[in-house]
Design brief:
Number of helices of chain A: 0
Oligomer: heterodimer
Distance between the termini of chain A: 41 Å
Largest sheet of chain A: 6 strands, mixed
Largest interface: A-B, 21 and 23 residues
Number of strands of chain A: 11
Number of strands of chain B: 11
Order of helices and strands of chain A: EEEEEEEEEEE
Radius of gyration of chain B: 13 Å
Structural class of chain B: mainly beta
Chain lengths: 110, 114
């Protein structure tokens, strides 16, 4: 059975801390792994990772994929209260299906 | 601007009633999806459609029905058989080929029981 597992389920940190969110997967016909940030409404796309070992970076956020060990991490440095959200990991397969994890709820306190 | 429109934003259902959530996209995407999200949870797939006049059940299809008569539209009906419908419902679409952002989402509909 195809599945995506995220950890931790929730996290509370102080502003300025660095956090690492984990995503492991077992999905056949893997195409890409996706990270989203969700606040009140629709998930906002962050990264798409297709190749192993190539870091994607956007400001204080970065992510990398390991296709051998079947996992990805999302790093957020110097966290701010605006980073508080649910972070979703999804795997996109070649059949155009998307498998989502349960998400990590991040709370950043001032 | 191209995008996905879901309506209504909020919906209340009475016991024994069927309700329909609308999802329209003008991105010319072939595939469309419906997800359910419960508080503090990720997204669970209800139904998806890769092309017009064809759709498949996802992980939690019981108590729901869909249709795909037009490429732009993928309405979801929550039937009276769905005993716990209170949730946030997200519609999404994707294109089959390569793209910078593989899946686009609407702003969601919050459904509650009266």
């Amino acid at each position: 059975e195809d599945k995506v597992v995220q950890s931790p389920l929730s996290l509370v940190v102080h502003e300025g801390d660095t956090v690492t969110l984990n995503c492991s997967y077992e999905v056949t016909n893997f195409r890409s792994l996706l990270w989203y940030k969700q606040e009140k409404k629709a998930p906002t796309f962050l990264f798409m990772l297709t190749s192993s070992g190539i870091e994607k970076k956007s400001g204080r956020l970065s992510s990398i994929l390991d296709k051998k060990e079947l996992f990805s991490i999302l790093n957020i440095t110097a966290t701010q209260t605006g980073d508080s959200a649910i972070y979703l990991c999804a795997v996109w397969n070649t059949g155009n299906q998307f498998y989502f994890g349960t998400g990590t709820s991040l709370t950043v306190i001032p | 601007d191209g995008g996905i429109t879901q309506s209504p934003k909020y919906l209340f259902r009475k016991e024994g009633q069927n309700v329909t959530l609308s999802c329209e996209q003008n991105l010319n995407h072939d595939a469309m999806y419906w997800y359910r999200q419960d508080p503090g949870q990720g997204l669970r797939l209800i139904y998806y459609s890769q092309i017009v006049n064809d759709f498949q059940k996802g992980d939690i299809a019981e108590g729901y029905s869909v249709s795909r008569e037009k490429k732009e539209s993928f309405p979801l009906t929550v039937t009276s058989a769905q005993k716990n419908p209170t949730a946030f419902y997200l519609c999404a679409s994707s294109m089959r080929g390569q793209g910078l952002q593989p899946q686009h989402f609407g702003d969601g509909t919050r459904l509650s029981i009266l």
